[in-house]
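LAB NOTEBOOK - FOLDING QUEUE
OPERATOR: T.R.
BATCH SIZE: 2
PURPOSE: Compare the predicted structure-token outputs for two unrelated chains run back to back under identical settings.
PRIORITY: normal
REVIEWER: second-year student, initials M.K.

ITEM 1
FIELD SEQUENCE / FIELD STRUCTURE:
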Amino acid sequence: MSVDVEITDLYMENLDLGLNLQPSERLDVGLYAENMVVGLQLSNIDYVLDIFGLLRGLEVGAVVNTTDDGGGNNYLDVVTLLAMSVNNGDIDLDTNNTDLNVSGLDIQLDATGIALFDNIASIIVDALLDVMLSLFNDLITTLVDYLIMPLVSEFLSELSIGVSLENIDGNGANIDFTATPDYLNTTATGLSVRLATNASAPTPPATVPTALGSLYVDGIAPIMPATTPDGSTFDFGVALSANVLNQILVAAHDSGLTTMELGPGFYQGSSTLNDAILEGDLVGIRITPASAPYVTLGNAEGAAGTLYWYNLTVSLDLYRESWGEYRTIFGATINVEVPFEINSTFGGYLALSIEQLPIIEVTQTDASGILPLPASFINSTVEYVIPMVLPLLANQLQVIPLPSIFDHTLFMEEFWVEGGSDSNNTLALAGKLIPIALVQNAAAPTTNIDDVTYRQTTVEMESVTGGIVSTNSVTLNNGAVNIRISGTNPNPEYGGLQYRFKIDGGGWSAWKERSSIDIDSFLAGDHSVRICSRSALMKEETDCPVVEFTTTVAE
């Protein structure tokens, strides 16, 4: 028998569509409904009778419904396996292995005017049962096309990144960054999406030297594991290879973002430099890199990795009101290595932060400035200046966008480094997905300054008088400070507070949970430490307290 089937009516109650991740890019799709009614029109029925020959073109109406089977059950349950793949950033879905399970199925036929219908009714019912599986497979396919496909596609489009960062530093630095899905991987606990990335500087300034080279090495893009190293689960995670980070750092260099001018008055304690520096003179700093900084991941105690910056020229410039301009005091070319820490920002970017002291190698000095300065003095001054500059650099480099979904932002709770080939290690970040609307409506935390204690410090100070360098051990009152802090957390159910600080208007430190801040190596002069808190909802404090003090030379 052959038959054409047309759906004329479809009704369901308590419709439930469930999605369950399975390994190997598979998704179980379940459709459950109660009190289902399906109206059908059967046409062009061709059936061969042994006695009467061939019956052609019969028209039969049918109603298929679920009724109480005596046990209070009347439901339809359809399960199919959905295969997912990515093609040029778009999602492809295919269904297979559809299974139909019903309780209380009842089929009523309307064949008024068809002779001998009773003889073929049971055969038509059997045929209907045969086509029901195909029918609901088509229904599942339709639901996939209209419900699941947009959902998964929207998910992937949310993960995709197309960012043009313009005038980042106020001096015209622009960076373009794109990331598009190119691979899916599923486990029973989660879905991983690999993103193909590209970063570039679309309008590199002519004054910025072209990067000398790249540490890029071939390697397989990372796939985020389903759990943290200790087996804990998480809402959302991001894995970044060292290659991706270095690609973005090259773009930051090419854009001019790492070429900085700090001043006027950035350098505290400048009057100790030379007796030719007068009261009211201002000292600024210029950073001119010959190549991009780069990072390696792992092998840094208490940090995510190490940032390296080679062939970096540091110049100190003197501004005098009667000149109306800056004039160079000295310059030095250096190599810098420093551990860095990471976190995530509310705006959805990876935050690099530097708190530890760097290793500095001075490779060349330039004493041809307005003041005659020996190399030893230049070296010691650079060793003081660079730790002040590096946090500002790290803040400038917060241009690495993190993928997120559906108006959420990632609050990083844990990070770890996984090994890779040829030093192309992977940085993994895992945490909660926080709804942006929840953050916007949340109350802000506050920081409490519980106690401030000061210590004397003894430093070796070099000064130049009459062209002669002298080294003295100087005792400084308030040369070090310890600030004990706590905070008022309006949402402790989501987690504890994180704190960060900055010194004398410099760069911010890392967001982290802490109860005290200990800082030393202050030179003589007025100083300030601003401290801010944020909650686990990433709501930042709006009015951050400031600790102010003066460091003086002990009599």
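ITEM 2
FIELD SEQUENCE / FIELD STRUCTURE:
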Amino acid sequence: MKGRPDDAQIDHEIPKVQGGCGSSHNGCVACRRCNRDNSAKTVEEWDDELREFAEP
């Protein structure tokens, strides 16, 4: 996680708009910026996008 520890938020691993639920089993820790920027992507979709951006 980037950002400061006091900036942590709970994000949905599977967004509600993609059928995810609001239970604790569907949560992960993210910094505020990542939580905002990943929009309605799943954790896997967001990870793939970040890896594409980082590859030379």
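REVIEWER COMMENT (ITEM 2): The longest helix spans residues 43-54.
FOLLOW-UP: none requested
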